[in-house]
Amino acid sequence: MVETIQDFELARQERLWDGMSLWVARRAQGGVYSLGYHAEMTLKAAYFRFRGLTPAHVVDRALLNTTEARARQLGVFTPPAGFHSLRFWRDTLIAERAAVGQSLQITLAHAIGRHVDVIHAQWQVEMRYRAPVSTLAHLEAVGAAVDWLDRNYDALYT
Residue 24's domain spans which residues? Predict the structure, then answer.
């Protein structure tokens, strides 16, 4: 299957709505999973949009491998974890912006750091295969962090 940046954009919106619906229904595991997926798509799309790629641009293995190599050049050694790591995408976006002289404002950089760490602590791709372990407290924390990420999405790549 070929994915584009537009696919990431659509997936981030759909997973946000899925996650919010599950949050309202107090379905912790599903809510955390969907909201974490939204965060992953948000960070990936923001990175590629910052790099100037168009929505129709195909995100294939070659582009992902190039991104990992670029991250290393920039001093980012956060493992990409199959390119699902929220921290990898956050760190790579921050480093890329700094490298081209367009660093995030310090308050925005600190905030994205905190919010991604909250989501990262509760969300993993493998959740789709595991018995429920998320609590309503996890869902509340992830929901608040994702809300921040979604509200600040444009600022991450502009």
Answer: 3-157
